């Protein structure tokens, strides 16, 4: 049975990027885990980081719960928000440890050309750790070698210039929108006018645009970085 | 007074890419022209090209009319649909002739990394012609040299990876949506299910996504290829 | 049942690029077709083009026969060798016609960054035609719309910088080597010392290198341009 | 009234990259500030870093004074020379603090493809900080959110492959040359033969080349990373 | 003895791009040939193409004569100005014929990222022809196979982002400037104010900038596309 | 007399990437040194890092000895395996110190687009240090300025997309293969099935592929980043 791991730089990226796909996986009975690199604790004009981190973690538990993910499949690395660093050996090792323990057959991460620095760095970190986790070297990070066969990149902050895979999420769009509503700390209501906010109606826009270009409905778009088998 | 020229590979690209911005220009009293490279006459499963070309031209007159563009400011090169070619000297010359006659201060074209081959070729053709039109050489294409100071690229088929300019079109979105409705030959009603169709609600999606990422409302996104002056 | 189409700029590219994978498909009972854009008739220092074209076509029939491909699944466009041109509407249409008739679920083509101009142009031609073939537009090229769900790029002249998919061909390597031996017109014996020649032992090298880097055996490497479903 | 901020990796970059443009801004009465990331204290074969830093700061005060910049508009971050690092949260925060306090409407930085590692890192740091400064998040770095509407990249060590904006500095070239003479610690007289040196006549060369290609005179060339409004 | 071939899209590119280096080669007794793809006959606001072509050819004979190139080593393909096309088999073949006859050991061409469409296309044409000329195939273009071991790209319209080789031309700069004066049809005197013009003083600027960045004097900058041997 | 320095991220990269070329240099009497950035101490599933580092250093002494390199020309920086970092001033300085002391006329490094993160970072580190070592600045890292005239990139983990230089190593291939056998800690025998392993027969594959494409025999492929003189 497939095992799906989603890596998010901040809580909410996992829903924005591939929430509709996550709902497909859980509906089909596949185990889905989420690895949060940071808890996004600097993302508020008013709530202090030591308060916001726990709040966003609770929001994440609720949001992914809407999508059918069990709370005990969430992993929190708690790298400081803004501090994801592909050159940090401990961060690389921590991701390796999760990969070797969870043993995903399918990995989602931010696409590597996202306009957000944190997302680009998260993608680089995933790719580096996924390469090293598959080697028998580095036993100090635990577990045996695990080669993740398929790796996709999702879009959040910047659209993907030329998507390779599009998943039709028309049937799970409402679950995705509902899940995003759990992230109330990230709305304009919480942050003030003029801030980015894709909770609510905007959550439909990018998927609607992707759908309109490819025959209708709503779709999530992905880059493909590794493919384990050719679909036949 | 500024003069604005929009280059479209096919009728409807001008509205999809920058219809909301066009409405701003006409409202402000600026002259807006549109140069249609092809008339998009192969874009139907049922209507023959020699019929579809004139239909789409009529749709374009109606659509741009909604945006405030005068019909006599539309130019039709009637390059065969699918045949835009940056290496064709006659095509390059024909665009040069239009640039020297219309003398735009602001030029819109498809962005050069669009996934549509025709759009990419149209962008290359615009950039080549704009470079040559500014030279005193090539008198055979008429007019004196005209250097277009500012050139922007709009998004249609593929989103721009990293937009440089975003225009808030919240106030002209409805005009854009209404203009797109004029292109009835390009809807799923006309073409059948499963075809790309962004007439109607989907016309709001990309602009809504761009807006959500930058503070709300609806925005059109652009690349910048030449800038005549720095805004101060 | 899956249907597999391989596009080759010249006879022998299909074996060099994905001959081991072809043997997998035919062994599994899938229909495999090959579309030869040119017949490679200029690839000899001594045999005239009007003779070499038919010779290479016969070699191709023999070679793909070794891999289990039926001779009547081979299509010859006979574009002049060296003349593949993504801007040529008739070439684009001819490829569209083949795609709509053969209806592949999996398409192989040269990868788009190959050092050979002809291979790069063949890749661009495939991608443009595959995009247009999926549209209900362009009925003049026959058939109904056909959207090829999965497209892979194989390596021949230049290696792929960062392969996304690797197929283990250890079990079909000998069939691939045998198939290549059918292309006797392309050997140093035929052409003289100092010419490129990967018939024989060299046919194992690139696959051996790819295998060595990923755990042993022999592998064919691919880029991925479209993916129809995520392997689970 | 516009407010202009120039970010320099080392003292002298601001004059080399956009000294002629700075003189335009000050002449027009706009406030111009300069943010020096490092004080360039390792740029001498003979003067010790703890002496050279203060020397180059004094040179900078003199040089920008020639261009009409007030000494109290210069900010010194004093990151160790060679140590600019887009991944360093404190550096990112320090730049954010300056952006929110100075509130530039126009920002100049090194262009992101400069051959100098330090310049590329400075560009990345500016873009990251400019993105974060515009968010209501990160109140710990002071001030309210400030979105810098227009960001240009200037050329110093490597020319820009394809400039988007060119400013005619024929009228301020002599001021730029005079300003560069203030950086006496960076001349071959100070460093010895064989070292890079564009104080004096060489200060005219790149601007002269840019001018020659575009109609005469002297020009500074820029990339454009954000544009606040379209010039009309 | 080395044989040097310079490919120019238009007469004057050879001097602008590598005139100082040409003078080094002729001084050292090496045979230098120039292949002019077009005769640049559209490069005047007032002189008709059928007159300008011969004028520029005479200018080229004079200019390269200043640099020590014999007039009978110049080859004129007379492709229509603006019509260089890497996809045109006859153009590819014509360049192959010249390469196989002249047998250069060192080839100069425009660098492939030049902002001029014609220059980019000329570079692509050179690389394609140089690849094919080295093959024993294509006997129809005459001569035996010739593999040009070293290929450099020079800069004219756009600077090279990251030069690999810099030749010190301080000692031949005056010859280069003198040679450029032969191209009187290309000056502002001939064409009018506001046109690009690097005859005269501007001819020193780019070389002066390259020199200033690398220790003084004047230098020509190059990309390297093939290298025959490693200098030791 | 030329002096050759090879930079390796891990012991064995120097042989894999350019072992055949090294043998040419030592046979010709040139001094060859190797700078090992790390000792690759994490590259084993069973041997602890503090044991593996010394083992791999001994393997390196043996391997390079096979190629004719003197043991006292090997330098060990002992950066932690996985920790090469172009942003680390001490690492940059340490490489500068070696460059200024060894004074190479020819430098080999990993090519900058290698799929291995460590190799890419090593390439960036070499290029940064080589740029700084040539300046009279930075006397704190010892020696006088040293400008390395020629820098090549070799291929190990990922092939070079478009090699600029190919060295025929047919005559030194066996020495290269023998040298690789010295790295017994890196074989599947040592690490287990399924791990990358190019000791033995696989050591011939990439060179054999490069040879087959260019006339036969075995070749090592290189990128070229700096060129000191043009071969004539």
Multimerization status: homohexamer
Overall mean pLDDT score of chain A? 96
- Structural category of chain A: alpha/beta
User: Largest interface, per-chain counts?
Assistant: A-B, 28 and 28 residues
Main pleated sheet of chain A: 7 strands, mixed
Hey, roughly how much beta strand do the residues of chain A contain? 15-25%
Q: Runs of chain A with pLDDT <50, length 5+?
A: none
Number of helices of chain A: 7
Find the count of extended strands of chain A (DSSP E, 2+ residues). Answer: 7
| Overall spatial form of chain A | globular
**Radius of gyration of chain A over all CA atoms, rounded:** 17 Å
Order the strands across the largest sheet of chain A as they lie in space: 3-2-1-4-5-7-6
Distance between the termini of chain A: 18 Å
Order of helices and strands of chain A: EHEHEHEHEEHHHE
The share of residues in helices of chain A is 25-40%
